[in-house]
Amino acid sequence: MKLTQAITLLCDATAAEGRSPRTFDGYRSMLAYLVDHLGDREIETITLADLRGYAAALRARSERFTAHSSAPPRPGGLSPFTVASYLRAVKRLFAWLTEEEILPANPAARLKNPTPKRRAPKAASMDDLRTLLAATAGSSDPVTLRDHALLLFLIDTGCRAGGVCGLTLDDLDLDARTARVTEKGERTRALPLSPATVDAIRAWLAVRQPVAPVPWVWLNLGRRVKRVQLDEDGLGEVLRRLKKAAGITGRVNPHSFRHAFAREWLRNGGDLATLSAMLGHADPAVTARFYAVFTDFELGEFHERFSPLTKLVETD
Length: 316
Prior knowledge:
By secondary structure, the protein is mostly helical. The chain has 14 helices and five strands.
């Protein structure tokens, strides 16, 4: 079996499992570079030495990968996190081929993929979130009402962009203060909403209802919109516009809200298992690895609040 055929089979199997298109498209995209490096060889001929050579080539690159083959190369090389992602895709491919008994042994079993050092927090700052909310508060303009409700929903739920944009009117139960979101792999979960978020959504829906007979909560507004539904690109554009208007220089994108939700949950004393359920993770270890990321100063604050010695000294 050729390498390209093996990659196609993995992507098809991943799709059949109900995983997100982003997952199997990611496999296809990342593993294409393995084909570029090794050639479209018979998979039985690929050895651990070949895969180690590929890993070394990834780390030695002086240019970044580009989204399109026609795009000019960008200098700077690959980050440790990018290398780790590409090697995870390789390990997944050969583990799957072995599980399916297409290969008798896994040549990637001993391919080391060290965990990169802790990265800096990716969360939007609380000060920037306050600035954004203040800039969109107190207006009767439909666009601003939508933007304010959208910001509150992002901050209040920690949803992925896909879950936010796919939200329908039937997914909302504002009397019960809940929203049902559907995200990666068509996984659905119900999330509670704070009273402020419910009030803002009600205010938006009061002016949204006559706009269009469509099911989505969040709509594009304007004369030249191509799609009525606010999609992920549109959501990103809304946040970029609000960031520029508010004069903010920090992170403002859908995932920075998700990180902010997770960090503030933990800083306020929330537990990791519940946070994992709120974020839609199947494994709390994923939550800990990617979202429980704090600066040394913040870890010091945690220590001051939660060290058992603090209470012992207070009682002396």
